[in-house]
Automatic annotation (TrEMBL), chain A:
Name the record gives this protein: sn-glycerol-3-phosphate ABC transporter ATP-binding protein UgpC
PROSITE patterns reported for this sequence: ABC_TRANSPORTER_1 (PS00211), ABC_TRANSPORTER_2 (PS50893)
One Pfam match: OB_MalK
Entry's family note: Belongs to the ABC transporter superfamily.
TrEMBL record, chain B:
Function: Part of the ABC transporter complex UgpBAEC involved in sn-glycerol-3-phosphate (G3P) import. Probably responsible for the translocation of the substrate across the membrane.
CDD domains: TM_PBP2
Compartments where found: Cell inner membrane; Cell membrane
Record domain ABC transmembrane type-1: where: 78-269
Membrane topology classification: Multi-pass membrane protein
Protein name per UniProt: sn-glycerol-3-phosphate transport system permease protein UgpE
NCBIfam families (alphabetical): PRK10973.1
GO cellular component term of the entry, any: plasma membrane
Keyword field: Cell inner membrane, Cell membrane, Membrane, Transmembrane, Transmembrane helix, Transport
Predominant subcellular localization, coarse grouping: membrane
UniProt similarity note: Belongs to the binding-protein-dependent transport system permease family.
Cross-referenced InterPro entries: MetI-like, MetI-like_sf
Automatic annotation (TrEMBL), chain C:
Any one of the GO CC terms: plasma membrane
Principal subcellular localisation of the protein: membrane
Subunit structure, as described in the record: The complex is composed of two ATP-binding proteins (UgpC), two transmembrane proteins (UgpA and UgpE) and a solute-binding protein (UgpB).
UniProt-recorded name of the protein: sn-glycerol-3-phosphate transport system permease protein UgpA
The UniProt record lists the keyword Membrane: yes
Membrane-crossing residue ranges in chain numbering: 12-33, 75-97, 109-128, 156-180, 201-227, 266-287
Location of the protein in the cell: Cell inner membrane; Cell membrane
Species in which this protein is naturally found: Parasedimentitalea huanghaiensis
Amino acid sequence: MATLSIKSLGKVYPGGVTAVSDVNVDIADGEFIVLVGPSGCGKSTILRMIAGLEGITSGDLQIDDRRVNDLEPGERDIAMVFQNYALYPHMSVRGNMEYGLKNEGLPKAQIAERIAEAARTLRLEEFLDRKPANLSGGQRQRVAMGRAIVRDPKVFLFDEPLSNLDAKLRTQLRAELKALHKRLGATFVYVTHDQVEAMSLADRIIIMSNGKVEQIGTPMDLYLRPASRFVADFIGSPSMNVLDGTVSSDRRSLQLNGSHQIDFGTELPTAAGNQIAIGIRPEHLHQNTAGETRIELSVGFIEQLGADTVVHGTIAGSQSPLAVRLNGVQARDSGDSIALSCGRDQIHLFDGTTGQRLNWDNQ
Amino acid sequence: MVENRPFLTFLTHAVLIIGVLFLCFPVWMALVASTHGPEALSSSPIPLWFGDRAWENYSQLLVGGLPEAGGVPIGSMMFNSLIMALVITFGKIAISIISAYAIVYFQFPFRMGFFWMIFITLMLPVEVRILPTFDVVVKMGMLNTYAGLTVPLIASATATFLFRQFFLTIPDELVEAARIDRAGPLRFFWDILLPLSRTNIAALFIILFIYGWNQYLWPLLITTDESLYTVVMGIQRMVNSGESLPVWHYIMGTAVLAMIPPVIVVVAMQKLFVKGLVESEK
Amino acid sequence: MQKRVVFRSRLLPYLLVLPQIAITLIFFFWPAYQALESSFFIEDAFGFSRQWVAMQNYVELFQDPSYLRSFKTTLIFGVSVAVMAMSISLGLAVAANRVVKAATGYRTMLIWPYAVAPALAGVIWYFLMNPSLGIVAYWLKNVGVDWNHYLNGDQALLLVIVAAAWKQVSYNFLFFLAGLQSIPKSLIEAAAIDRAGPVRRFWTIVFPLLTPTTFFLLVVNLVYAFFDTFALVHATTEGGPVDATSILVFRVYNTGFIGQDYGSSAAQSVILMGLVIMMTFVQFRFVERKVQY
């Protein structure tokens, strides 16, 4: 168990491509940290730098206050679970789990004890003598986790461990992983491109794009107060509606691209004539006129999900797309219009050029 | 097949049977001839069925030794062939697998240079550098030694490429997992890479064993001492024995003996052999 | 061509390539260089003195009618062996690919000659065709062919061609069979639905799709015929009668070891090297198999 401290971490590949720049984060002991972002954003590179599989170009990496930049992967006291499991195909489940411990020179009795315990935890007892080829995907992933657990490392690293599994199994293993984290109380660093996985697992999420950290915070921080337009768009499904427009001269409404205008009933925190974007989550638009901000939706098509209905369309009188999530089963035809409103505290504002969040007095 | 045409099926089997006969008949005749005495083989047509001298002929060949073959028993030639084939096979596999390992799993100056040097050996078969290679062996004092018979043949571009190709198909994550499991380069090679290469090694073994066993020109150059003769090379002494007429029953017996080990290897390990052959040439 | 993660070690990789590179340098590169060098000298038989003669060895070679005849013999030999071995094995592969029952049995019976050394193949055929007691020669005599490869050069050449092709059939068969098996069955079925009969299907669908295999085998067979058959010739006809079967590799050996003409033998080696380099180049350039760089 350990803390992990990342200071101005950077990675430049030979050839000059910058994969990661200036990442700073202090991870507490026992914390479950998820690195999330689209592919190529640098999240795996950070994980691999922590593991020691990738050299560190700049910055410092400390595990328990010890600088580990130049240590070999085997010397960092970490364990890693790979997306494709990376089990040694010629070794049995037991062989896979004990390989690292043998290399460490642990006494036989202790190895056997640790494997028995991990096998019990992961319900792998009956498979110990099988080869990985004779296991299902979910079982292989559990073996990979077992291999990590027996090492009793300071930090667990996970590189998209559930991506190769089907949806149902993924949900199941997600729950198991969460339970495992609780039981072990260890520090987890977990990489995924799936925002649902990130939201459901993490104590804190590091969301990245283009090699830079966009925001670090709890899942609810990211959902309720996205620091940038990118985060707003990435977190939540269906995605947040983001509409570009120009602040009107009285700063009380937004002129959308097109001709439509949205009134706020209060002053926007930015100068008249500025380009900004507003963001409203589909689930925060309601079929009433109680909210301060009113929008009329012209229905395009609908997705019936059973518990709720997602209606896609455009803001009436404009080309701006808008989606709304309504409770229960809702029947709507294309061309219908729906009157919607939204509380002002649920509208997010982003700078039109930098995409950074703009705070206003009500938040 | 797409459609059922009895005539085509008949033709198919006819073609295959004729093919089998064409390939088997010469060796059948060799077998038959090796069981007769010189009298039966002195006038045409020679018999098409076995004679009764099999035991006599083969025991004479294996342990007795023939003046026509320099007085060396074929048994001892076969022993030399076996040594040569095994040393070449294991030598090629060993040095190829480690050089492929270095080229794939390490980054070091001249890496590609070494790769190309190994590649170029494909273009320099023994046959085109006979005399100077012979000179090198003479200068190194390796004439008439097992070392001279084997070491110069141990470099192998084909085997190196095969292993390299195979290593490239092994997922990167495996070496990463091993590094996290505290395995250094040698331990990774020994514990992970070598066991994973078992099938490739076995397939290569078959092809290289045949290659080593069937060497002709090289033992012809390197050995002047009959006790080091290999059987495939030794047989020519009996065929072209100068003044005397060839002793065909012995020559055919020798030919049969000389082809038994490699043929057994091919037939017994057919599946591996086919896989190995087709892959090593890709 | 390399792993994403590589081991860090300064000395180890060099130790690992050392044995291979050492053998390569000592027994491949150095002799090849020696051959190149001595092809520009004339050396006396005892190796005491030598004299720089520039291209003279080469010029003499190409003015020597018997060397030119060797070139022609080698070409005839190589092409005949390749064509004969490849067409027989293609026929067998097509047949074997049709067979469902006893397929393994047939395959076993067809591949074992791969293991037979060229020298042994030569010796056995030499025996079968022996003018006085060979069974094939006897049959030929019965149909009116007077076979004597000791005297008739063309017949001697034919003998080594047949023996060399016989040995190579198995190898080609395996590659053709693998090539045939890799042709998607749906293509053949589509052609059958398009009303192409078996023969038409073969020539319009199967054979074109086999082109890479065929070309690859052509190069391999030529290399085999040019170089690996030294043993076959040496163990049987020894180049005779009167040079009729004296292919280029045999001549290199003969000139150097028997004739002790080092310069000329070296020049011949260099010419052969050029030939191998050319063929290797063709193989890698036009047949997109083997390594990617």
